[in-house]
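Subject: for your reference before the review

Hello V.,

The reviewers asked for a structural picture of the protein, and I figured it would be easier to keep everything in one thread rather than splitting it across files. Below is the amino acid sequence we used in the manuscript, unchanged from the supplementary table.
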Amino acid sequence: MYEDLSLYIDGHFLKGGGRVEQDVLNPATGEVIGKLPHATREDLDLALASAQRAFESWRRSSPLERSKVLRRVGELARERAKQIGQNITLDEGKPLAEAVGEVLFCAEHAEWHAEEARRIYGRVIPPRSDGVRQLVLREPIGVCAAFSPWNFPFNQAIRKIAAAVGSGCTIVLKGPEDAPSAVVAIARLFHDAGLPPGCLNVVWGIPAEVSQYLIHSPIVRKISFTGSVAVGKQLAALAGSLMKRCTMELGGHAPAIVFEDADVERAADMLAPYKFRNAGQVCISPTRFYVHERAYDRFVARFLDKVKEIKVGSGLAPETKMGPLAHQRRVPAVAGFVEDADRRGAKVLAGGGPIDGPGNFFPPTVLADLPDDSRLMTEEPFGPLAGMVRFRTFEEVLKRANSLPFGLAAYAFTTSARNATAVSNGLEAGMVAINHLAMALAETPFGGVKESGYGSEGGAETFDGYLVTKFVTQL
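And here is what came back from the structure prediction:
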C-alpha cells in the first residue's frame, strides 16, 4: 500500500484542509498512485516558527540524546526497509532491490551520525599571559533549510536531516514532489524515534516558490541543496546575498579512465552495471569512458556483453535490472543526446531510442567515436547513456577528463601504482575511485569541486556546515 502522503510540521502530519494537491505518478505505468498536499504560506510560516522554537531547546540537548534518536532511526529504517523501498520503486522507478538497498544502506548514515554527534569537540588554546583562558567552541548554526532530489529520495534527505539534528540544529526540508514517499517515511521514522516536535519539518510545493520563501526567511541560517548546477547557482546566489552558509552538492559528468595496463575485463564488469544503476540517474554515474586505444576493443566488447544482461522493466518485477526514467520529460531529453551524437558521426553500439509502450522506458545505450564537443561529452545526460572514446597518452586523457566545469566524481582503472598516484593527484574531482567504485559510504565525505558544488556530507566532515566556531578568551 502506497505511503499516506502529508506535510510534517511541529510534530503533526497534515493534509487536506483545502490545500492544493499534486498527482504522484508511477513512472513505469503513468498511473496516479497518490496525492501530495502542497504547503500554504501559513504552513511554511508554521514550519519556520516551530523550527526556531525547537532550536532553543534542541541546541542545548545532550549529544547522548541526539545519538539515541538517530540510533533508533537506524533501527526503524531496517525494520521498515521493504515497505519503504517498495514505495520508492512505485514513485521513482528504480528496481525493488536497489530501493530496499538504499534504505538499508542509509540506516548506516543514521548510525554514523549518532556516533559522530558524540564527538563534536572544541579545544583549549594555550595563552600568552598567565591567568588567561582561551577556548574554541563549536555550536549549532541554527535553523536549516534543505532541498533534496528525487533520484535517491531516501539517501539524500536523511543525510541532511541526520547532520542537522545530530549537530543540534533544526531543519525544514522540502523533498522531491515527484517521488515523495521516502521523505514522508523518514518523517515517520524520526517521529517514532522520539525526535521532539519542530526539530524536523517537511513541506511540499512549487520548488522555486518554496525555496525562495525559506531562504529569504530571517529564521533560516543555513541552506543545503542537492540538485542541478543551474538551480544550485541560483540558490547559492540568493543565499550569498543574504550571507547564509550553504552546502551545495550539484551535478557531475564523471570520467572513467581505463588504462592500457588495467584489468580490462574486471573494469568492464564493474562499470557496466554501475553505469546503468537507477537508469543512469545518478550524479556520480560514470558517463565519459576514456579507454586506452590498445585496450579499447576488449573493453567495449566486454562492456556490451554486460549491457545485454540488463533486463529493463517495472522495478517491481524480480528479473528487472533497470527501471524507467523517473519523469516522462526525461525520455525526449535523453533521446536528444543520441540525436546529437548521430549528427556528429558517432556509432550506436547498443540501445539508442525510447522503448515503445507505457512508461518512461529508455534502454541502456552505448555510443562510440564521439567528438569531445558533442553534447554527451560536455553536458550531464542524467540517463542511461555511456560514451566510449579512445586516448593515447596520460597527459592527453587527464586534460580531456578535466576539461569540463564539473568536478564531482571520477574513476580510473590501472595496475600501475605510478598511474594510480598520478591520476588521483591530477583529476579535478571531489571524489576519485581507483580500481573500484565505493565512494558514498557513511564514514567518507561526499562532495565536489568546481561547478559541482562545495561542502561535504558524510565522514568526519559531515557536521562542518552545521556548526559555527566561537572563540572565548577570559581573564
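For the response letter, the relevant points are probably these. The chain has 14 helices and 20 strands. The two ends are 64 Å apart (CA to CA).

Happy to draft the paragraph if you're swamped.

O.
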